[in-house]
Amino acid sequence: MQASGPTAQTRGRIPGVESYRCRVSLSQSVVLRPAGPVQPLDRRVWGLSAVGVGGFALAGLYQLSGQRIGVPCLLHATTGLNCPLCGSTRMAAALLRGDLDAAWHFNPVILVLGPLLGVALGYQVLAWALESLRLVRLPRLSMSPRAADWLLKGVLVLLAVYGVARNLN
C-alpha cells in the first residue's frame, strides 16, 4: 500500500532572490513492510532526544529525592541571575506531579518549547524504529541546513530575550 503526492514544497520564496528560499520536504508515502536500506537518523536528533530523556530522568530523581538532588545553575550560583534554563528541572518535576500551574511558574518558555520539540523528536525516532523493524515506513520531515540554522538562531534569540526579561524584576 503506497500513497503518492508531492515530495517537496517550497515556502517563503522571495521573487528574484533565490538564496532566501527555504525548502522543507515531506515524503507523502506510507509503505507497509518496507524493504531496502533504512535512512539513518541525524545525530542531532539522537543528541536532543538523549538530553530530553536525561532531563526527565533528572527531574524524576529530583522529585523522588525530596528535591535534594538536582543540577545547580552556575550562573545563578555565581551572580544570582537566572539563566533561560533556570527552573527547568523543577518545571519537569512539577509536570511529573501533574502541577501545570507550578510548571508554568518555574519556566514558561521551556514548558512551551519542550513538548513541541519532544513530539517532533519522538515522531522521528518512532518513524525510524518502525522502519528498522520493517513494519512500516512513515514520512519523515527533513529541513534544509539553512532552515535548521534559522530555526536554531530564532530559538537562541528567544531564550536570550527571555533570560534578560526574567531578571528585570
From TrEMBL:
Keyword list, A-Z: Membrane, Transmembrane, Transmembrane helix
Pfam families the UniProt entry points to: DUF2752
Residue stretches spanning the membrane: 109-130, 150-168
InterPro entries linked to this entry: DUF2752
Protein's name in the database: Uncharacterized protein DUF2752
